[in-house]
Amino acid sequence: MSFAEHFGTEPKENQSQWQRCPDNPIISFGADWSREFIAPSTVLVDGDDITLYVEGGADDRECIGRYRSTTNLAFSPAWTPDPHNPILEPSGHGFDRGSVFDPAVIRYRGRTHLYYSATAGGAHAFAESASGGSGDSRPDDECIGLAIENRGMFDRQAAPVLVGRCPNLIEVQGVMTLFYVDVEAGGYRIYAARSEDGIQFEPLIREPVLSVGGPGEWDSFTVTTPKVFVDDGRFAMLYAGDSSRLDDPTGIGLAVSDDLIQWHKHPGNPILVPGVPGTFDSLSVASAVPFRINDTWHIAYAGGAQAVAEGLQSQIGVARLLNS
Asked: Are 27 and 35 in contact (CB under 8 A)?
């Protein structure tokens, strides 16, 4: 059974299929470079080993780090930080001098490519100033950079590959498709670009490949943090959305596609919502990263108990899909 086939048309039934780890959050803020918040972005499973790439922030400055675990301990707090964290910091000059975040990591042509969001200023400055609505303003310093691993270190490319943020990539027959978000009418929309070398990207189409829902729907204002994966011969996307706020999403949705361009939202969205009052994820859920262990689907996700405008305090949770 594919991932998408586990979900029916009733959102509440779909939401009940997730078992949150009783020890959530599995990774909390607290390290110096991530003492204010931490969030997942990419999970790589290699045999029994799992690597989780994360973003973390302190004093309006974001960096990229990673944690490791084993498959039998994925559903637990047994995640060990890389001793070299953060593995990528702001450059101090150029387009990524303010913050680096949203690491999207993929093995491509024998090398590890790390795509990341970058800003010249604070990573959440635009979200903190935005109050919702249909304004025409957009951030003027957000772009996507690339660093390629070389002997354990990441060498940055001198120029960004695209304007936008929240990169996520998938390779099909040697061609890379990059999903990212940009601001339209005050909220985020999801776009896609394609590359044959992993460096030069061209937009697939001018319009978003996934836009917001209609008036009154749960994702009517913003859709963000796309995570695309192969799902039993088709493609699936997990994304976060909200009806009023830019960067405090209150649901995770599912969409499917046959060609990476035309996406169809699942009728039973949202399939995950915030936790009960008093939990670490009681206000928002975002950046749901799928990974599979012994045929059981899991997600690592960012959960928050207060809004970005009040000071982001995201932590990382994990949940697994029952009966998968």
From this structure: no
Contact 222, 230 (CB under 8 A): no
Residues facing residue 284 across a β-bridge: 304
Q: Give dist(CA 294, CA 139) in Å, integer.
A: 42
Preceding omega of 160 cis (within 30 degrees of 0):
no
Identify residue 154 by its one-letter amino acid code.
F
pTM above the 0.90 mark?
yes
CB 118 within 8 A of CB 95: yes
Instruction: Tell me the CA distances in angstroms from 185 to 164, 219, 220, 278, one per residue in order.
Output: 15, 14, 11, 33
**What are the chain's domains?**
4-321 (2.115.10.20)
| pLDDT tens readout for residues 239-278 | 999 999 888 999 999 999 999 999 999 999 999 999 999 9
Q: In this structure, are residues 228 and 260 in contact, taking their beta carbons and an 8 Å threshold?
A: yes
How buried is 68 (Cβ within 10 angstroms: 0-12 exposed, 13-18 middle, 19+ buried)? middle
**Three-state SS at 199:** coil
